[in-house]
Amino acid sequence: MTTLIQAANLTYAHGGNEVFSGIDFEIVEGDRVALIGENGAGKSTLFRLLTRDLTPHEGEVTQRRNLVVGFLEQEPTAEPGATVLDVATGGGAQDETDAIEARMRELEGLMGTSDPDEFERVMEEYGDLQEQLTISEQAASGTRIEDALVGLGLGVERWDEPYSQLSGGEKKLVGLARLLSEDADVLLLDEPDNHLDYDAKRWLEEFMKSHRGAVAIISHDRYFLDRAVNKIIELEDGVAHVYHTAYTGFLKEKRERLEREAELRALREREMKQIKRSAERLTEWARQNPKFAKRAGNRWRILEIKRKELEAKPRPVLDRRTVDIEFNARRGSTIVANLDGVSKSFQDAAEEREVFEPFDLLVTHGERVGLVGPNGAGKTTLFRLLLGDEEPTSGVVKIGPSCKIGYYSQEQETLDPEKTPVEVVRSLRAYSEPQALGFLAGLLFEYQDANNKVGNLSGGEKARLQIAALMLQGANFLLLDEPTNNLDIPSCEELEAALQDFEGTILTISHDRYFLDKLVERIVELRDGRVRDYPGGFSYYERHEGEGRLLTLGAPASA
Fold it and tell me: Judging by DSSP bridges, how do beta strands 186-190 and 214-218 pair with one another?
């Protein structure tokens, strides 16, 4: 396999703090690489080093000559009045075609050289550019962009919409479609799946498998990492470990590696104790007989060398400190939510748009229900009906009288951006400041972050603060809208474990298929205005998609 990118002894520091050091790996043709690690481990920084937007403090990144690297921007720029299709096509592919043709004309002027080595170099570069030109012309034709837009959930009917009116997530989809259409040799995708529904994730999985070069992705979607990647690079404690496997295999191999390292470290520590005891005995004997002094000195020197070698290697941590999550709630009503003949429509400038037809739905105490469906199907609208923020067009929504709702918002608008996490906690529970800081420390908030304004926090910190608020509210009916989106994998696993122990009722919107399989035992699907019920987790739903029981007006409402 041809090596496309090679990282050798990469070291990078930010603000005087070392992010990682001594990193070595390569990306070859056919690689489908997942870059994983806790939030703050340096994943996005490493991507920027691979694109050469950043320069390492030590080491180097080498690329195959004429390599085309595509990097997903957070949000494409747009001219005023530009449509979705305008921004997706963007002239980028045509600009690239023009640049390639201009360089080819320059090379044609150099072909008359009498230097054989120079002539060979010119012809080789010219041949490479001819291949790039073919790819660029395909991208400029628009076919790839249109396929990508449709595959990612932005159908033809949306292409003429003003780009400025799209949500942040939809703008990122436009940027992703534009990038995928360029057919770069190496694609670097930084959390592209946060705003994708199931259909779009499946499309992206198939795209990655069929891409002619290599793809590296930062993602916390463990289901995606099991289905779409063949190599995992984990950043942990400032170093990188490479595993030639998908996510499930990575978990097994990592555990085995840590156990081996722990056993080896214990063996070396025992050896050092023996050397120390020997050195101490020889030192004691040397007080009586000087001929032992040299042997004692040698032992102490060996001990110091081995101590430095051991300290240079991080101690293997089998069970890392993670967020401390626990939900406590009193038993609520047996009937938690009863939707009777509920429908919802919106009137826009042109026509009335029906979100869902009249249906009955019953959710009872202790159920864990996953709410799924394409983006725009009405999942968040259904949450707003349950919260009382929207009124149904027809029908009645009833919440059990002793049910207390706790709401986790994907957009995090439940948090006051001007408050600090300490103030949020103290507004929900009669804690002193030290008690609030201690509580937040259990959710991995450092003192500085706990006293920072919410508006300045990262997405992961806001997610953990929302979880903290749910813990303090004592809710027995949790409405969770994409709760894993901004969490790293260890935090997702702790949240799953806490929700499995929760004795109340859960209704969650999630595109995290791994999360759904671990947590829910019932799926309610919204699609094309209809509501279907599936008596199982996500894997069951995926096997029986389209076969669920249709929840219509007057039909039995319970699974």
Answer: parallel
Residue 192: how many CB atoms within 10 A of its CB? 25
Residue with tokens 């000087």: 290
pLDDT at 131: 67
Kindly report the average pLDDT of the chain as a whole number.
85
Looking at the structure, do residues 210 and 359 belong to the same domain, yes or no?
Answer: no
Co-location of 236 and 192 in the same domain: yes
Q: What is the pLDDT of residue 559?
A: 45
Residue 324 within a domain: no
> Is the confidence at residue 132, as pLDDT, over 70?
no
How many C-beta atoms surround the C-beta of residue 380 within 10 A? 18
Higher pLDDT, 115 or 223: 223
> Do 168 and 83 have their domain in common?
yes
* The total number of structural domains that make up the chain: 4
Report how far apart, in Å, the C-alpha atoms of 131 and of each of 98, 125, 137, 496, 506 are.
14, 10, 10, 48, 54
Give the DSSP H or E segment for 500. Answer: helix 489-501
**Which one-letter amino acid corresponds to residue 132?**
Q
User: Which of 183, 212, 231 is the last residue in one of the domains?
Assistant: 183
Q: Record the pTM.
A: 0.75
Q: Which uninterrupted H or E stretch holds 105?
A: helix 92-110
Instruction: Residue 304: name the closest of 327, 283, 276 by CA.
Output: 276
Same structural domain, 19 and 110: no
Q: How many helices (H) and strands (E) does the chain have?
A: 18, 19
Q: Are 84 and 174 contacting, i.e. CB atoms less than 8 angstroms apart?
A: yes
Q: What span, in angstroms and rounded, lies between the C-alpha atoms of 55 and 64? A: 18
In a domain, 430, yes or no: no
Task: Please tell me whether residue 263 adopts helix, strand or coil conformation.
Answer: helix
Q: Residue 61 is encoded by which pair of tokens?
A: 């990144």
Are 71 and 269 a contacting pair, CB within 8 Å? Answer: no
- Same domain, yes or no, for 507 and 398? yes
Q: How far is CA 380 from CA 194, 301, 368, 536, in A?
A: 16, 67, 17, 22
Determine the longest span between alpha carbons in the chain, in angstroms: 103
Kindly state whether residues 390 and 488 are assigned to the same domain.
yes
Q: Are 404 and 329 in contact (CB under 8 A)?
A: yes
Find the domain containing 365 and state its range.
335-404+474-550
